[in-house]
Design goal:
globular, 158 residues, DNA_brk_join_enz, single chain, DNA recombination, Integrase-like_cat_sf, Integrase_catalytic
């Protein structure tokens, strides 16, 4: 979910309720009470995530249930504060992947994939819910470095 929605792994994803997913408009609502920014935002839901959530029957789930419930399925109580990260770490370690891969990396990987597919900095800013374009540009330089396909592949000959 983080890869496609860029929802932060802490309170935002842990406290997400089924009713926060608006299937008709393909939006996910991150409420101000859980958002890092303290503001309510509507996130566009990519079709891949939409289809997975339909497959998981989230569209007919009780809207008051937490998407990530305490017992590994939608429930009345949210999953524990560190549960998702701990599960990720166990899987990462069992696959002998570097500890440099963090649970939060899914959000970054999704943004990087968007950039690779040609999304503009402004589109990525909106998806990541950054307040300023400078934050997105700083993040992109740190994560991606300076990449420019036009310079790599279309530089004029002498």
């Amino acid at each position: 979910m983080m890869y496609y929605s860029a929802i932060r792994p802490g309170e935002e994803i842990r406290l997400l309720k089924a009713g926060d997913i608006i299937f008709k408009s393909k939006k996910i609502i991150v409420k101000s009470t859980t958002a890092k920014s303290n503001r309510t935002d509507a996130i566009d839901m990519p079709s891949q995530l939409y289809e997975e959530l339909i497959y998981q029957r989230m569209d007919i789930c009780d809207p008051d249930l937490y998407v990530f419930g305490k017992w590994g399925r939608p429930g009345n109580k949210p999953t524990g504060k560190n549960t998702l990260r701990n599960r990720f770490n166990r899987i990462r370690d069992s696959l002998n992947l570097s500890k440099s891969y963090k649970f939060y990396s899914w959000k970054h990987s999704g943004a990087e994939a968007l950039a690779d597919k040609g999304a503009s900095t402004w589109e990525i800013q909106a998806h990541l819910r950054h307040r300023s374009i400078e934050t997105t540009e700083r993040y992109a330089r740190k994560r991606l470095g300076n990449r420019n396909e036009k310079i790599k592949n279309n530089f004029p000959d002498i």
